[in-house]
């Protein structure tokens, strides 16, 4: 199928996904049916646009489909918060069967981390801990999406390359390139998880936006699990301390090595099983944090302005500013993923434009400061990595601001803005891979 037809299908899929009564698995089934109809109609001599329109009409009215689906599966509407549904999971897998698979993978991730802590040097473990957990997340989605063997093999190749690089490179102890590799390797690994989550269809704009949405929801669930687990462990520790039982060895030796990677796997499952629960609060979260983030960026600009000359700006302050920009980008992406693409431009879209412009201003100041520091003190792995990231962020944010302004002026559709985000994301993955694989030998592994 050509690009225009794929774009139309992606837009249709995004619209269908926002119907609360239709689950992701059912959207996949509807999309497969739609593609089959389009293929049959094209075979009769119709062009792509005619085939797509007729296929859509044959699917029937979407609101009617939603109402009918809700009547047939009404138990899903009030059992969303139940741990395991009464019905079946996608692809006919019983809910308890899937829960057993998830728990087994969570325990497996914990065992892998525990073995790494026991047998691997601390410096190597810091760089490779993601390698121990990622296969279990990829394994869950490979099982859930029934990935083809060739897709799994394709995911294994970069994983093996990354593992060889992180373990075989002669990194200097506490060297800059080792720290950079440890920070950027999870980004590369997350791409592998994302491809598995997307069912191997990474080229689809809609699937990439699904990954953005999944990542945001995963962060929410991880936060909730961390808060709940922290309270539970704190209460347990307090009670046992009354009877002079020290829980610290058990906590550091067993609970944390299993709880942290296990929570990641369980959170991924919760996103899959309880997608609609988070989607209901996602727009609220983005509307609350967008104005607060704007205020934070204005404070950041004030801090940079009061820090003196750009060369004298403290390096730690620059690092914190970079972290803030990454968080702003994450908020922007999640806000776009949570927005109804069919809604008309409104006040919140204008606020997002202000957010992006403020981020561009901060990024421009940071780039100027970094360039001045490199000119004054010379280059280093950290400086080049930070400079590259800020350049990538600047391009991303400037284009996003331009498209948001055009959308507010009704000169382009929201799909254009959404498409820019999803098609630019692989650039960050490529840069992360460059930092991990290329930087160490170029800078002598220091």
From TrEMBL:
Keywords: Membrane, Transmembrane, Transmembrane helix. It comes from the Bacteria. InterPro entries: Perm_prefix_1 (IPR047928). The chain crosses the membrane at residues 99-117, 123-143, 152-172, 178-198, 218-242, 254-271, 292-311, 317-338, 350-372, 384-405, 425-443. NCBIfam families: perm_prefix_1. This is DUF4153 domain-containing protein.
């Amino acid at each position: 199928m050509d690009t225009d037809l794929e774009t139309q299908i992606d837009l249709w899929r995004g619209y269908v996904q926002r119907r609360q009564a239709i689950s992701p698995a059912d959207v996949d089934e509807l999309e497969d049916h739609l593609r089959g109809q389009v293929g049959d109609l094209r075979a009769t001599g119709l062009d792509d646009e005619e085939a797509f329109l007729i296929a859509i009409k044959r699917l029937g009215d979407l609101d009617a489909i939603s109402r009918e689906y809700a009547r047939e599966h009404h138990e899903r509407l009030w059992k969303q918060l139940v741990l395991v549904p009464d019905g079946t999971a996608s692809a006919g897998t019983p809910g308890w069967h899937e829960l057993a698979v998830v728990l087994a993978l969570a325990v497996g991730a914990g065992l892998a981390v525990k073995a790494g802590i026991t047998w691997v040097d601390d410096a190597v473990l810091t760089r490779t801990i993601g390698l121990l957990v990622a296969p279990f997340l990829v394994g869950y989605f490979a099982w859930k999406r029934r990935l083809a063997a060739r897709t799994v093999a394709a995911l294994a190749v970069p994983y093996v390359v990354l593992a060889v690089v992180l373990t075989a490179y002669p990194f200097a102890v506490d060297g800059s390139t080792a720290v950079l590799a440890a920070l950027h390797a999870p980004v590369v690994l997350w791409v592998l998880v994302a491809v598995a989550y997307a069912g191997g269809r990474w080229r689809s704009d809609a699937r990439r936006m699904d990954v953005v949405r999944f990542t945001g929801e995963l962060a929410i669930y991880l936060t909730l699990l961390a808060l709940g687990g922290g309270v539970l462990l704190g209460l347990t520790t307090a009670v046992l301390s009354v009877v002079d039982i020290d829980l610290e060895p058990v906590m550091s030796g067993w609970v944390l090595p299993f709880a942290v990677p296990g929570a990641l796997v369980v959170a991924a499952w919760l996103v899959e099983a309880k997608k609609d629960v988070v989607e209901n609060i996602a727009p609220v979260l983005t509307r609350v944090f967008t104005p607060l983030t704007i205020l934070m960026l204005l404070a950041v600009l004030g801090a940079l302005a009061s820090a003196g000359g750009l060369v004298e700006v403290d390096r730690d302050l620059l690092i914190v500013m970079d972290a803030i920009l990454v968080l702003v980008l994450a908020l922007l992406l999640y806000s776009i993923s949570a927005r109804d693409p069919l809604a008309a431009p409104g006040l919140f879209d204008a606020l997002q434009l202000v957010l992006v412009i403020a981020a561009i201003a901060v990024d421009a100041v940071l780039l100027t400061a970094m360039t001045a520091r490199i000119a004054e003190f010379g280059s280093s792995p950290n400086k080049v990595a930070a400079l590259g990231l800020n350049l990538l962020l600047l391009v991303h944010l400037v284009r996003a601001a331009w498209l948001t302004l055009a959308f507010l002026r009704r000169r382009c559709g929201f799909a254009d803005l959404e498409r820019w985000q999803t098609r630019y994301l692989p650039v960050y993955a490529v840069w992360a891979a460059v930092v991990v694989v290329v930087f160490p030998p170029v800078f002598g592994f220091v």
